[in-house]
């Protein structure tokens, strides 16, 4: 079969991949800020919870997390009498987001801690509350610092979505596997798929660079 | 039954957990073998990429940079399928385990080549000038001046990538390799109890990575910052 014949089924798969990438970046971003700021909290319960979350999701393999949420969680739910069966889509988005969020949380924490202590002292001197100091002084300076690491993380998010094909989701990797089974033309199919992932990654990094340029303005002028 | 060990499903969860532990640990051994082999490939290939990337020829340097970017931006699982299905079409047949380790090595060589580059570039330029003024030949400058100072900077980053590779080994299960996660999945498929084996795999990974990270931090603190003499 001519290579153009593979385009349509692969495009369907690519669309699923794009959706998973967007959802995991969105929810993973929320987790990053929630747990990254949480780890710096003075409340021991919040900081302890954040540390446990980060250690568990950074310390184990993404595929283990995916399988655990999809295969093991329903059984755990059964034991305590709650229905925790997740659809493959929900399990996939949750595993990807939690994994991404744990790595992102460390980036957020690092960038906030890198803000100069003098900035906090100045905020205190001006009678800012600690949440005002965080949202109006620390974060506008810290977010531009996070962007290069977040760009790498966004590419990682795109690449990681390929694992959802292992819990029956029909993403680009799954579409490739189906085409290969059907036509036995692995060279063409997998070359096309690699190039499609590469193309999507270039788009992701272009978008992240645009975001970086726009958030760098928050930092204001430096002297 | 797996690896010659049978599981015990009739005496409660704890007996079940204990009966599958030897199976998971055998799987862990496969995981670690794949990780170390992949890491070795990545170190060698990464060095090659770093050298090619620094070539004076613009064409070589630029095309290596594109290749590194391509490897970094495409998923491991697709690269693995590519090697596993495409190489045999050209008459190159490896056992699944070697193909898996090769895929891990190729994926991480892209990251590790950057580690080498950064480590070498971080050595103060004055060192090179001093070596030149002492009339040291370029090869000796590299092995006796640059490398000894680059190694302590590079080792912690390499250690972190070794930990990352270990966490990526479960992907190799898609080409029939029975490593720790796949062993747990097989046990789950046959006993309908996924919770115990998968949680144990998570726990073993957690212990392993916490231990390994502590080791990397220890190395980072204890390595002589000024350099390691190679003689």
Q: How would you describe this structure to a colleague?
A:
The complex is a heterodimer of chains A (223) and B (231). Chain A is mostly helical and 223 residues long. Chain A has a domain at 15-169: MetI-like (MetI-like fold). Chain A has 8 helices and no strands. Chain A has helices spanning 4-39, 44-59, 62-79, 88-114, 117-125, 130-160, 172-183, 186-216. The radius of gyration of chain A is 21 Å and the shape is flat. Chain B has a single domain, classed as Orthogonal Bundle (MetI-like fold), CATH 1.10.3720. The N and C termini of chain B lie far apart (52 Å). Classes of the chains: A mainly alpha (223), B mainly alpha (231). The A-B interface holds A 55-56, 58-65, 67-68, 71-72, 75-76, 79, 155, 158-163, 165-166, 173, 176-177, 180, 186-187, 190-191, 193-194, 197-198, 201-202 and B 70, 72-79, 81-82, 85-86, 89, 167-171, 173-174, 181, 184-185, 188, 193-195, 198-199, 201-202, 205-206, 209-210.
SSE diagram, text form:
The complex is a heterodimer of chains A (223) and B (231).
Chain A: H1 4-39, H2 44-59, H3 62-79, H4 88-114, H5 117-125, H6 130-160, H7 172-183, H8 186-216
Chain B: H1 12-53, H2 58-73, H3 76-86, H4 96-121, H5 125-133, H6 138-168, H7 180-191, H8 195-222
Helix pairs in contact in B: 1-4, 1-6, 1-7, 1-8, 2-4, 3-4, 4-6, 5-6, 6-8, 7-8
Highlighted features:
heterodimer, A: 223 residues, mainly alpha, MetI-like fold, 8 helices, 81% helix, flat, B: 231 residues
Biggest sheet statistics of chain A: none
Shape of chain B: elongated
Shape of chain A: flat
Number of strands of chain B: 0
Number of domains of chain B: 1
Task: Describe the structure concisely for a colleague.
The complex is a heterodimer of chains A (223) and B (231). Chain A has helices at 4-39, 44-59, 62-79, 88-114, 117-125, 130-160, 172-183, 186-216.
């Amino acid at each position: 079969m001519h290579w153009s014949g593979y385009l349509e089924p692969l495009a369907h798969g690519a669309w699923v991949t794009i959706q998973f990438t967007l959802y995991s970046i969105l929810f993973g971003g929320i987790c990053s800020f929630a747990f990254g700021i949480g780890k710096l909290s003075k409340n021991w319960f919040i900081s302890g919870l954040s540390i446990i979350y980060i250690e568990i999701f950074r310390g184990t393999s993404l595929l283990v997390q995916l399988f655990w949420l999809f295969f093991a969680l329903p059984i755990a739910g059964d034991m305590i009498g709650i229905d925790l069966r997740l659809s493959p889509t929900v399990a996939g988005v949750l595993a990807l987001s939690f994994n991404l969020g744990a790595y992102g949380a460390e980036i957020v924490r690092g960038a906030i801690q890198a803000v100069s202590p003098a900035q906090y002292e100045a905020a205190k001197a001006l009678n800012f509350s600690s949440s005002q100091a965080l949202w109006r002084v620390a974060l506008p300076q810290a977010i531009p610092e996070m962007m290069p690491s977040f760009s790498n993380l966004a590419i990682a998010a795109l690449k990681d979505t390929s694992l959802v094909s292992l819990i029956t989701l029909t993403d680009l990797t799954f579409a490739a596997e189906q085409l290969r089974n059907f036509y036995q033309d692995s060279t063409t199919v997998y070359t096309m798929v690699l190039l499609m992932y590469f193309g999507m990654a270039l788009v992701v990094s272009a978008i992240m660079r645009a975001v970086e340029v726009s958030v760098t303005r928050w930092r204001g002028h430096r002297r | 039954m797996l690896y010659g060990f049978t599981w015990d499903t009739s005496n409660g969860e704890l007996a079940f957990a204990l009966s599958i532990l030897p199976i998971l640990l055998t799987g862990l051994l496969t995981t670690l073998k794949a990780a170390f082999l992949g890491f070795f490939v990545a170190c060698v290939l990464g060095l090659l990429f770093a050298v090619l990337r620094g070539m004076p020829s613009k064409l070589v340097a630029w095309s290596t940079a594109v290749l590194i970017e391509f490897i970094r931006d495409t998923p491991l699982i697709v690269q693995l399928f590519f090697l596993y299905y495409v190489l045999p079409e050209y008459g190159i047949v490896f056992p699944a385990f070697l193909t898996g380790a090769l895929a891990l090595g190729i994926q991480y060589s892209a990251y590790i080549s950057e580690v080498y580059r950064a480590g070498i570039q971080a050595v103060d330029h004055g060192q090179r000038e001093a070596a030149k003024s002492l009339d040291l030949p370029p090869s000796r400058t590299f092995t006796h001046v640059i490398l000894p100072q680059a190694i302590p900077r590079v080792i912690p980053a390499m250690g972190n990538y070794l930990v990352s590779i270990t966490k990526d080994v479960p992907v190799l299960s898609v080409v029939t390799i029975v490593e720790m996660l796949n062993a747990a999945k097989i046990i789950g498929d046959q006993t309908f109890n996924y919770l115990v084996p998968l949680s144990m795999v998570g726990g073993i990974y957690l212990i392993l990575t916490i231990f390994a990270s502590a080791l990397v931090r220890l190395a980072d603190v204890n390595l002589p910052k000024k350099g390691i003499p190679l003689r």
